[in-house]
Amino acid sequence: MDPELIKDCVHCGFCLPTCPTYVLWGEEMDSPRGRIHLMGQHVTGTPLTGEMAGHFDACLGCMACVTACPSGVRYDRLIEETRAVVEREHERTPEERAIRAMVFALFPYRRRLRMMRLPMALSRRLQPFLDRVNPSLGAMAELAPPPARPVRLPPLVRARRRRRARVGLLTGCVQGEFFPQVNAATARVLALEGCDVVIPPGQGCCGALSVHSGRPAEARRFARRTIAAFERAGVDAVVVNAAGCGSSMKEYADLLADDPAWRERAEAMRTLDLAEFLVELGPLADRHPLPISVAYHDACHLAHAQGVRSQPRALLGGIPELELREIAESAVCCGSAGTYNLFQPEPARELGDRKAERVLATGADLLVSANPGCTMQIAAAVRRAGKGEIRVAHTVEVLDASLRGLGPGTLGGAARRARGNS
């Protein structure tokens, strides 16, 4: 907890209406400025109590407060540092330790996650029982998407038109195993827009889940492996299609600041969100009409952490006959927040229900998001509301359908899964 960063907060309160937990409970200590006050107490000698740890754990790390703050407070840095302190100094219950150990032994590792896809999807039927055993297990069962058909991507996808760039594609862990069709669509779109797409071996988890959960040493190991994988690929930029991953990779230099050589290598790696990259590159391929209404959801680590808001809307808005509809309270987190909906399932469900209500109110045919966690979270909330399965797609899947002249029926739900790697 950096005392100088703590001093930057003037306790003005602009962050309060943007903070999801303050919106839910109206408690000062569950607002950004309240948590900063607790950080200041700890820095000046107050021991970390269980109650203090609870307030820090309740933070989603959505960074809406960073967007709202007129003083430029680096709450993102503060909460990451604080989570590391909590993990070092706070003794969790055996049950909490077991759940956390299971999550971090499973989700960052694609092979382990692959083995668990079908059991997790089948466990939906057991959710009420699992909820009684442990709410985190119930949340894991509820969030699991239906198993997707595997997609095998070659090491290199050649540009389909005039070659304009050579880019690396992060395939990710959760994205790669639960939503492989998003990676396939990403490679196709980049190739159609004139890019050679390199999918290097040796990449895995980027470290986002670890760094956001107070496990910096683990995050640094993942970061060094990711940097090395893309260095060998010799690319102009690394393109990321998952908001949380992109946010963390753009902060690699800070994460590796204690090692000058690795910091320099991190700074040399240019990381861009897919929408950010495509808008900067400019369109090359023709867009075909796609008569569909779309509700676009701002993933927190895209909108707040990376400041990428207009670019996804520009891509969607450039598709003929597509109607873009805005979601009320778009700046308020859906409750996913990396591992938050697993470790804090009750407030996560409250926020998910709130977001699902506002998504459904748009009356759109399709929900579009740029983060796998948000997709699973909102879809689960819609099911919980008794509204069945909502059609959900990534921004790049919509663009892919337009570029290839596919109809709106190919987007979302069973139709999307049936396409597989076509």
Automatic annotation (TrEMBL):
It catalyses: glycolate + A = glyoxylate + AH2; (R)-lactate + A = pyruvate + AH2. It comes from the Bacteria. InterPro entries: 4Fe4S_Fe-S-bd, 4Fe4S_Fe_S_CS, Cys_rich_dom, Glc_ox_4Fe-4S, Helical_ferredxn. Its EC number is 1.1.99.14. Residues 1-29, 50-81 form the 4Fe-4S ferredoxin-type domain. It is an enzyme of class 1 (oxidoreductase). Component of a complex that catalyzes the oxidation of glycolate to glyoxylate. This is Glycolate oxidase iron-sulfur subunit. The gene is glcF.
